Amino acid sequence: MDQPPLRKRITDQFSYRGERADIWRAFDLLLETDAFLNLGYSEWYQPHVVGSSQRRLVTEVGARLASHLPATDGVRLLDVGCGRGGPAIHLADQFGFRVTGLDLVPYNIERATENARRKHVNTEFVVGDATQLPFRSDAFTACTAIDALVYLPDRNSVFAAVANVLEPEGVLVLSDLVVQSDVTETERGYVDSFADAWDMPSIGMVEQYTAGLEDASLELETVENITSHSVGRFRKWTTLYLQLLGSPIRSLIERLLRAYDLDPTTITEQVRAAHRALPFLQHVILVAKAKAR
């Protein structure tokens, strides 16, 4: 049977519909996935599942924005692929940005709106397509996309749309998961299997991102590899999980997952696919500026 279109699969996954949403329900037990869906950021001395690594990544993105702007208080910022609002709320609260968040998934926008209401932070959230942004030209001084574009097949159209809504010399900071440029055919196969298991399109290389930014008249300022602070930490957890499944306590783990109404088979398939692909993936932060028109 053919799979549903990618857009529907992504919407179902993040709306907690379908078996592939179970991995996110499992993350809910450890992480702030009710608000943050990004990979996170941890220094070597920080446990990756303690102290909100996901919030720390947003702080890193905000700091890079701040270093490229004369001020952040009251500055209009668009958060593309805002998920459940945690990054937008944090950027507004900690840096003073006036944030508008946009996401494809209505469930995410509902959660984001509720999260902002509970925290009394003035942010706006809208359902929309990142390739056809529903905003006027030059509407924003800054833009973020935090581990979001990996779910979008047409990233070049996103860059063109962002360039249109950014003021001249406006700043874009994005973080994302990319595949290493020197992978073998076998290694690329592991990455493609991972993408398919997690309902992602083909994962791009950083060179494709930089070319897409240039085509959209967004001038690349910096590329920073933060893999050791994020993706590099996850393989310890996938290794531990798979080792436990090979031990006498496998049945206990599976019973525990089922107790939370989670499907162990699907979760294991996704963890195993991630485990094989992680050595060939990188987590990067890119900073770009809109060129003067």
Instruction: Outline the biggest β-sheet.
Output: 7 strands, mixed
How many helix segments? 11
Radius of gyration: 19 Å
The coarse overall form would be: globular
CATH class categorisation: Alpha Beta
Mean pLDDT: 93
The ordered H/E elements are HHHEHEHEEHEHHEHHHE
Low-confidence stretches: none
| CATH H-level superfamily | Vaccinia Virus protein VP39
Strand content: 15-25%
Task: Return the domain count.
Answer: 1
- Any guess at the CATH architecture? 3-Layer(aba) Sandwich
Strand order of the largest sheet: 3-2-1-4-5-7-6
Number of strands: 7
Instruction: Give the N-terminus to C-terminus distance in angstroms.
Output: 49 Å
Helical residues, percent: 40-55%
Based on secondary structure, the structural category is alpha/beta
Q: What is the CATH topology?
A: Rossmann fold
Q: What is the element layout, followed by pairings?
A:
Elements: H1 6-14, H2 22-28, H3 53-67, E1 76-80, H4 86-95, E2 98-103, H5 106-119, E3 124-127, E4 140-146, H6 155-165, E5 166-179, H7 185-197, H8 206-215, E6 218-225, H9 231-245, H10 250-259, H11 264-277, E7 281-290
Parallel strand pairs: 1-2, 1-4, 2-3, 4-5
Antiparallel strand pairs: 5-7, 6-7
Short note summarizing the structure:
With 293 residues, this protein is an alpha/beta fold. Helix content is 44%, strand content 18%.
